[in-house]
# Entry
Amino acid sequence: MLFSHISDTHLGLVQYGAEERAQDVYDSFNQSIDTSIKDHVDFVIFAGDIFHVPNPNGTAIVQMGNGLKRLKQNNIDSFFILGEHDISRIRSTPIPYVYHNLEFSKYIGQGNTIEYKGVLIAGFDKIRKPEIPHYEEKFSAIDKVAQGHSGHKILVLHQGVTEFNKFAGEIQSTDLPKNFTYYAMGHLHDKDIKQFNHLNGPIVYPGSIESTTSEGIKETHKGFFEVDISGSEASTNWIELETRPQFSFKTDYEELSKTIDEIAQKITGSRKKPIVEVKIQGEKIETDHIQAQIARLNSLVLRCFWRISTKQVSDSSVFLDRPNVIDDEMFRLSVDALGSEESAKFAIKELLPILVSGEIKEASQIIYENFEKFKKEKKL
# Structure
């Protein structure tokens, strides 16, 4: 038996305000559906953050619907949970529920176990860190069910595990039910797999299907996993998707013209025009010269970003060498500034993504709800 494990599709993301980037996300999503159909998988798991915002645009909704429809037409069932990007903090029905109600896909985010073709499947929607202790009983309950099941057992979660990323983690591997043979994870955007002695199967992150703004500009590989559970152990096969190339270059100001020549040579002939970042170091710098050199790339790239750093600052500034996962660095700096991990998580993990998406009403509601919660705690 074979299934696809896809996560963090973020349908509806329009990076840099460019419609080409929105289409890139749809292209990657459709590649994952096409490949799953071609390889005759038995079912597909979507591990959260289906959409980029809780109220996605019509195109994103239709793209997801068409993908699920094509799976159904090929007798491939699918299961999904919700990530934080799918859940509105203002009480409303999440859009993905529509697909469950239309029987295009099955929602499994409430922790109830189901059996499908001899496979036990359970899932939980995104759990915020303060809520984790309340799930101990639920984890224990499904673990007992898994222990009594003779076939494969799959647990679907949209969580950061601290052993994978200490900044983005809300849960430790030891918190997880131990009797599942495959842990289908979402939330972290880089592909990763780890096996722990205290768990019966691997914890697996396929990562996002396309680069998002929070990841910075870097050469990276995106895709999903096809998982063979015909044997006693789950066997993973990485399927790389064709995504728009991204490159980050460093150069001294004096070498800029030469570097631009090298960049042009490297990116010429790309299937899609790449996104390029040029970091320029120097002292006596003329921006007119930089702009003239960068302009030479305009016809070859979708976007080209450049920025200047000085040698004196470059040795100490954390901002000059952009971290691979910028969210992690933002969170670390926020903890330092606010003096509280909980306040930093509220600012970076909850409030900032909504503000970036222009959801002012939702942001206001979140601030109000947290203020009311703060007042109650103070009274206690």
User: Anything to note?
Assistant: DSSP finds ten helices and 15 strands in the chain. Residues 326-379 form one domain. The first strand starts at residue 2 and ends at 6.
